[in-house]
Design goal:
alpha+beta; two-stranded antiparallel sheet
């Protein structure tokens, strides 16, 4: 369903992806802390989120890609796909993410 909403939009204004090259090194920088502080302020779960795409349509919004976490804090398996269960949702944003120097965005 979320693919329908973003289909036909321009590429995202901004992307952070924890699978991007350089992400682990970025996690040891002040920019990572600023990014986490921004995400917390916007209501984005920094524990389970692995990708954020920011778009501007009538409002600034983000498509959030998250792993599904069980009540006891473990990753949930998607046995049909033989992978970790994932979910996507949208969040209306009050601000753009901070500008940080990284190869991960």
């Amino acid at each position: 369903m979320t693919d329908i909403v973003t289909a036909g939009l321009e590429p995202p204004l901004w992307v952070a992806d924890s699978n991007a090259p350089g992400w682990l090194a970025f996690m040891n920088t002040p920019g990572y802390r600023r990014l986490c502080d921004w995400a917390d302020a916007e209501g984005i779960d920094t524990y389970a989120t692995y990708r954020v795409e920011v778009y501007l349509l009538d409002a600034l919004f983000a498509k959030i890609f998250k792993y599904v976490i069980s009540d006891d804090g473990h990753l949930v398996s998607d046995e049909c796909r033989d992978d970790i269960a994932r979910t996507e949702r949208f969040v209306i944003l009050s601000s753009m993410p901070p500008t940080v120097e990284t190869e991960a965005s």
